[in-house]
Amino acid sequence: MISKGALINTEIYARMKRLGMKVIEVPVTHYARIEGHATGAKISVIVNALRELIKLYLKLHHEGLEIRTEKPSVKELTHV
Prior knowledge:
The chain is mostly helical. It has one domain. Helices cover 46% and strands 0% of the residues. The chain contains three helices and no strands. It has helices at 8-18, 43-63, 74-78. It starts with 7 loop residues before the first helix and ends with a helix. The model has no long low-confidence stretch (mean pLDDT 82).
């Protein structure tokens, strides 16, 4: 795993799909922020997310983009 910010879920999803794992969607409830303030619209946050996206793309592309249909072995699941 190389993602440290906004793309962590994207990386998890991409790696699961590559291993042929089943991904399901579950509902979640979002609540209004009680304390603090949102930072997602800050230009520095957006630039960092784009930088992280490029690094993630290059890393996944270097590892190979094929998506498998067979189930992964235990060894593959424990060596991520």
